[in-house]
Amino acid sequence: MTPHELVNPPELAPAIGFSHAVATGPGRTVYLGGQAALQPDGTVDPKSTLIEQFDLALANMVTTLTAAGAKPEHLVTVTVFATDAEQYRADLKELGTIWRRHLGKHYPAMAFFEVKGLFDPAALVELTGVAVVP
Fold first, then answer.
1. What is the chain's alpha carbon radius of gyration, rounded to the nearest angstrom?
2. Where are the beta strands (DSSP E) in the chain?
3. What is the average pLDDT across 91-105?
4. Whose CA, among 35, 40, 43, 107, lies 20 to 30 Å from 15?
5. What is the 3-state secondary structure (H, E, C) of the chain?
6. Which burial class, exposed, middle or buried, applies to 125 when counting CB atoms under 10 A from its CB (0-12, 13-18, 19+)?
């Protein structure tokens, strides 16, 4: 259970897999840098799929959260950058399963952007986020 208030006004479309807003409780703010599917040697497997990269990017996000003394439920916002929105939508069910495996059923405020490219040319997805640790 998150220590923050997830805000989903009934007048808006149902928030499925995200929250419209998050009102944070008091705490220490942790800003996550871009988390891509970087392997321990700093490379992205150019043969990996969007699903495989999303899985590793989320694992890297959780590792970073843990190192900062945070937990997934402390996330108040996550931004997803992907190079192929159509593929992301096609994989949404499996991406949701991966999300729940790493972050549970905690859905912070989220945004998605399709981008022309990411820093590593082999990267298909990158995640950023903010967590507030009570």
1. 15
2. 5-7, 21-23, 28-35, 75-82, 109-114, 125-133
3. 97
4. 35
5. CCCCEEECCCCCCCCCCCECEEECCCCEEEEEEEECCCCCCCCCCCCCCHHHHHHHHHHHHHHHHHHCCCCHHHEEEEEEEECCHHHHHHCHHHHHHHHHHHHCCCCCEEEEEECCCCCCCCCCEEEEEEEEEC
6. buried
pLDDT tens digits, 105-132: 999 999 999 999 999 999 999 999 999 9
For residues 23 and 7, give the distance between their C-alpha atoms in angstroms, rounded to a whole number: 7
Domain range summary for the chain, segments of one domain joined by +: 19-133
18: tokens are 């995200």
Q: Which amino acid is at 13?
A: A
For residue 42, what are the contacts with CB-CB under 8 A and spacing of at least 6? Answer: none
Q: Does domain 19-133 have CATH number 2.60.40.420?
A: no
Nearest to 76 by CA among 15, 4, 27: 4
Task: Identify the DSSP state of 14.
Answer: P
**Cα gap 84→77, rounded to integer Å:** 21
